[in-house]
Amino acid sequence: MSANSLPEGAAVWHSLEVDKALDLLDSNADSGLTPQEIQQRLQKYGSNELEETAGRSTWEILLDQFKNIMLLMLIGVALISGILDLIALRSGSLKPGEVPFKDTIAILAIVILNGILGYVQESRAEKALAALKKMTSPLVRVIRAARLVEIAAKELVPGDVMLLEAGMQIAADGRLIEQSNLQVRESALTGEAQSVNKQATLKLPEETDLGDRINLVFQGTEVIQGRAKVLVTNTGMTTELGKIATMLQSVESEPTPLQQRMTQLGNVLVTGSLILVAIVVVGGVIQARGFSNIQELLEVSLSMAVAVVPEGLPAVITVTLALGTQRMVRQNALIRKLPAVETLGSVTTICSDKTGTLTQNKMVVQSVSTNNKNFRVTGEGYTPIGDFQLNGQQISLEESPEISALAVACAVCNDSVLQKEQGEWAILGDPTEGALVTLAGKAGIEKDQWNSKLPRVAEFPFSSERKRMSVISQVEGVATGDASSRDVDPAIANFLQSEPYLMFTKGSPELTLARSTQIHLGNHSAPLTEEQRQKILTENDLMASKGLRVLGFAYKPLVEIPPEGSDETSEQGLVWLGLVGMLDAPRPEVRAAVQECRDAGIRPVMITGDHQLTARAIATDLGIAQEGDRVLTGQELQRMSDQELEQNVDLVSIYARVSPEHKLRIVQALQRRGRFVAMTGDGVNDAPALKQADIGIAMGITGTDVSKEASDMVLLDDNFATIVSATKEGRVVYTNIRRFIKYILGSNIGEVLTIAAAPLIGLGGVPLTPLQILWMNLVTDGLPALALAVEPPEPDVMQRPPFSPRESIFARGLGSYMIRIGIIFAIITIALMWWAYQHTHAPEYQGNPDTWKTMVFTTLCIAQMGHAIAIRSNNRLTIEMNPFSNIFVLAAVVVTTILQLMLVYVPPLRDFFGTHYLTLEELGVCIGFSALMFVWIEGEKIFLRIMGKKAV
To answer: How far is CA 710 from each of CA 132, 689, 714, rounded to the nearest angstrom?
Structure first.
């Protein structure tokens, strides 16, 4: 068979016999491939490397920032302003001391600053693929042309015969040819902590889930123990790891709700501004009956265009989000992408991986069954402290000596070590064995002491074929031959008569029970009846149905050490001790976090690669699902069309035995249903779904680099409850963003209407220059807006459903508020403008006739200070609030007012900004008119209170 006729399918290898797989790939298990075949296949399949598709370049990202409609309008304003200044410069009509092009320079500086801010947020390179590449092994041992050689992993091709041993990272996907006691850690790929026992001889059904394909090995996983010979079936982008890389690169980033709202805001503001400019220009031309005043109308139009664009808003939003990230870091949530701060507040569904996210990633014994009694075991993690309960009541070990006997077997038939590091109990070795050592510790059986009492002299190691292991120990004091000197611990005294050795066996309950002929009952053993055997099997099934991993334990006294390889004959006639059921236990704080999610209108969903019984047990325990809720498995999901999945996705809270493609499909189906999805995960398999989700949340401690790079947020403490805190902060940030948008745009509308009114009511000239408007939008708007951004949260922020992520920025009364307040703002300022114009144009007036413009400028700025103080709360009056609960607002008001007065009374600033000196009487009038804004807003609150309505 030539390289060109090799099979393309990747899903069939687990359903083929080894010989059939070798035939299909035209390979030989003993001699491998020839050099000629290798070259042909390298040309056909390419290198065994993950390929990266081209993304947006740095320049493309930068140029995209200037496609924003508001920035485009400002660029247009800057160009027209520059042309007008150039005409004035050439005609010599510039006023004395006036600096040409200052408006153009100021506007372009703002445009460039906003462009840079957007670029910095967007330009963070996606490094998920780079992290994925690190998981591939650099070197690999293969058989080629009947010789054992070591080659670079990128040179592997389908049909190569690869050799594996403990500690190796697997360099390609492959079908096992032969193996010996092979265990592989696949947690990075499947997300499950338990190492997988592989078997070469099995032929599996075609629909077998990825996590159950125990006759295959996968690129990026790690050999824990044993050795194997593997036929390479898939390399590069066709491996399971390559499929994840493809999915990662195919996921397109959607704009966040805030970005969508800001786009909508820009479109509305620019459209509204252009319509108003057209009205003013047409009205001015009609009023003048010609184009004699076109330059004045253009200046008015430019000022209006600058006034309508909230130049300071992008900077204020960026700073607000940055402050939010700092607060979140203090709560152990690291935000990688700034807009994610606000996006968290919109989440409606949290899709969580089980292992290490909802659970502790620590196997913990939950249940023990001995002597026809079922005991519940309490305690958390690997801490050897807990109680044994029978029917809900704590029991003493003296009442149930069979527990101590079983605990000895757990401690002695064990290769792991329990130790305390920096105040935390930790396991060195297999998590399952760690759970057994911890159980023994809860029963007062310390492994170190019993290793001395029962030193190991031989063993029959665990293998995937035998599904059990046995340890032969010497009984201290017996082997001396002096029976009277025997000092045997009471826990095992009834195990022996005069035998010098004890064998402890653990493993599959069915297989261990089948080799048992007696049962340990309290302080003696008795023949194992058929009725007892059936009760044990029933209890095993019951424990397994609760999602527990169940092991059976037995012992056998021995007269001599059995010879090596005699396990089949030696492991007969065992004395049954009992069953131990363990689970990767839920994190204790997650139950409360799940309940808080539900109170906040957020739906938690479990998506796991684990078995459905385990998934159901954990989900029910945590309150994610109720008894009897449907569990959707990967096989069922695979058979569903996208439309069918979309119809079911709101009805299912537990997904089990799913693959990376399934996780991605679930997230996409939820999004098509209008849900706003957060996805938590820690494995490589989670990365595509993390990137697809509206908020991808990676685990900081157990998470892989790939998952972290694909995420928007990293939980530094791997605590599900931290998501709830981060969601609360997101809601607070969004509420404050709405608050300062109301503040900024209400003021801007007032500015626009004031500027538009000046020529229409027959006042000469433009009341505000573009530079003065920029000052207002950046300083007198910007500083108080930043202060409003740190307003404390409202008490009920997590007692309501999330606001729709697709709601308009103007929803819930914000649009009507802005228009209403803008009109009031304009009425007050236009009234002041009319009075000031008459005052400064009176025959007896001694000052500059243009002083009325400075009065308008000052009134607008100081009125905004009253607006900032009043808008802190939608419903409470200012006198009802603690003025020091947000000291930043008071500070911003004082500082901004001082800066505004400096523009009027400091000569250099007065010259640059084109203002005029105000008398105390004129300043007093400005302050009086400005105060009316504060009075109006407080009056609105009183009116709404009387009417029994609540402002939003």
So the answer is: 10, 9, 10
- Exactly one of 209, 353, 567, 712 is catalytic; which is it? 353
What pLDDT, on the 0 to 100 scale, is given for residue 73?
80
Buried b (16+ CB within 10 A) or exposed e, 119-131: bebbeeebebbeb
Q: Over 589-645, what HEC string results? A: CHHHHHHHHHHCCCEEEEECCCCHHHHHHHHHHHCCCCCCCCEEEHHHHHHCCHHHH
- φ and ψ at 90, to 5 degrees? -70, -35
Contact indicator for 789, 736 with CB cutoff of 8 Å: yes
Asked if pLDDT for residue 497 goes beyond 90, the answer is: no
Q: What is the DSSP letter of 524?
A: E
Tokens of 124: 């963070």
Q: pLDDT at residue 132 above 80?
A: no
Structure-token pair, residue 618 = 């954990």
> How far separated are the first and last CA of the chain, in Å rounded?
73
Q: Which long-range contacts (CB under 8 A, 24 or more apart) does 36-40 make?
A: 37/3, 37/159, 38/144, 38/155, 38/157, 38/160, 40/2, 40/3, 40/4
| Residue the block writes with tokens 């202060």 | 787
pLDDT at 121: 61
Burial class (CB within 10 angstroms; exposed 0-12, middle 13-18, buried 19+) of 811: middle
DSSP 792: P
> For residue 71, what pLDDT is reported?
80
Write the DSSP assignment of 133-163 as a string of letters. Answer: HTTS-SEEEEEETTEEEEEEGGG--TT-EEE
Indicate if the pLDDT at residue 419 is higher than 90: no
Residue 180 burial (C-beta neighbours within 10 Å; 0-12, 13-18, 19+)? middle
Band (96; pLDDT cuts 50, 70, 90): low
Contacts of 911 (CB under 8 A, 6+ apart): 97
Distances in whole angstroms, Cα of residue 570 to Cα of each of 43, 470, 619? 55, 10, 42
Number of continuous H segments (helices) and E segments (strands) in the chain: 34, 28
Place of tokens 């600058």: 306
Active site residue 353: yes
pLDDT tens digit sequence for 552-590: 999 999 999 999 888 889 999 999 999 999 988 888 888
Q: If you write DSSP's letter for every residue of 320-389 in order, what string do you get?
A: HHHHHHHHHHTTTEEESSTTHHHHGGG--EEEE-IIIIIEEEEEEEEEEEETTEEEEE---TT-S---EE
Residue with tokens 């009374």: 905
User: If we measure between CA atoms, which residue out of 624, 675, 686, 685 comes closest to residue 646?
Assistant: 675
The strand pair at 388-390 and 373-377 is best described as antiparallel
Provide the residue type at 761 as one letter: I
Amino acid identity, position 247: M
Q: Which H or E element spans position 502?
A: strand 501-507
Task: Write out the two tokens for 809.
Answer: 């920025």
Q: Residues, the chain, total?
A: 952
State how far the alpha carbon of 512 is from the alpha carbons of 213, 434, 456, 578, in Å.
Answer: 25, 21, 20, 10
Quick one: 825 exposed, middle or buried, by C-beta within 10 A (0-12, 13-18, 19+)? buried
**Residue keyed to tokens 């700092």:** 326
pLDDT at 98: 65
Rounded average pLDDT over 602-617: 86
Torsion of CA 541, 543, 548, 553, to 10 degrees: -80
**Half-sphere CA count of 676, side-chain side, radius 13 A:** 23
Are 640 and 716 a contacting pair, CB within 8 Å? no
> Band of the pLDDT at 612, cuts 50, 70, 90?
confident
**pLDDT surpasses 80 at 193:** no
d(CA 683, CA 673): 26
Q: Please give the single-letter amino acid code of residue 368.
A: V
